[in-house]
Amino acid sequence: MRVMVVDDEDIERKGLKMILERELTNIVVNDEARNGRLAIQIAKTFQPHIIFMDIKMPGMNGLETIEEIRKDSPHVKFVILTAFDTLGVTKKTSTEGVMDYILKPYSKDELIETFDRLVVK
Prior knowledge:
Residues 2-119 form the Response regulatory domain. By secondary structure, the protein is of the alpha/beta class. 48% of the residues lie in helices and 23% in strands. It has helices at residues 10-23, 36-46, 62-72, 87-95, 108-120, and strands at residues 2-6, 28-33, 50-54, 77-82, 98-103. The two termini are 14 Å apart.
């Protein structure tokens, strides 16, 4: 399974990648992106199955990025990473086909449980 991590903060990307690779088998976190534009380019080549996407990034935000990636890759499952627990975010993510969202800061267990739910769906 190919997994991609998109977050503008290096420490968030590296930490998430480390947790996923350490705790899960049969996945490849081949790529990560620091912004939406780069994520779109990488997704076209890498063709990930799951993308963990930060919602608040400079320039193109996570929801805009998801919308663009969906045009070429409707099969991709998205998990939003956000520090914002608002109803508007929840409603918007459900209309964009986002499978789940995780509030920052998240625990390793929460991350693994979310991943496991996605694999089952």
